[in-house]
Amino acid sequence: MALNFRKILLEIPALKRCISESQKLFKKLPDPLELCTGQQKKEILAFMEGNCDPYHMAVIKRGSGTKDNPTLIPSAFNGRIVGCICNDNRFVNYMWLEKDCPKRCECGHWFKLKEVKAFS
């Protein structure tokens, strides 16, 4: 005699009510965008609009790096730390860039801050 456990479980009124109530709850779950607030919501909305790097933290490829045409580094502040991988070495040369003051790395590349709007 094989027991049909599913049939037995569904005959229990309390369990049957729990299963039907849980199915109703799953249909009423809100969209994740409705649940988030504050800065997280602003970041998600910016990403949906196509701004995938609102804080300007993506890797920037070095340009020509001459004194007349330096590599521009975006910043919403008066200064920013920049790391330069000099001549394909294994180390990173970090330097502090300040507004209106181009700086030359040890490898000879020039960098300059470019003012951008802060993400808020």
- Percent helix range: 25-40%
CATH-defined architecture of the largest domain: Sandwich
Number of helices: 4
Regions with pLDDT < 50 over 5+ consecutive residues?
none
Under CATH, the homologous superfamily of the largest domain reads Cytochrome c oxidase, subunit Vb
Identify the quaternary structure here.
single chain
Termini Cα gap: 68 Å
Output the strand order for the largest sheet.
1-5-4
What structural class do helix, strand and pairing data support? Answer: alpha+beta
Q: Report the radius of gyration as a whole number of Å.
A: 28 Å
Order of helices and strands: HHHHEEEEE
Biggest β-sheet strands, sense, barrel: 3 strands, mixed
- Shape field: elongated
β content, as a range? 15-25%
Tell how many strands the DSSP assignment holds: 5
Mean pLDDT across residues: 82
CATH topology of the largest domain: Cytochrome C Oxidase, Chain F
Give the total of domains. Answer: 2
CATH class of the largest domain: Mainly Beta
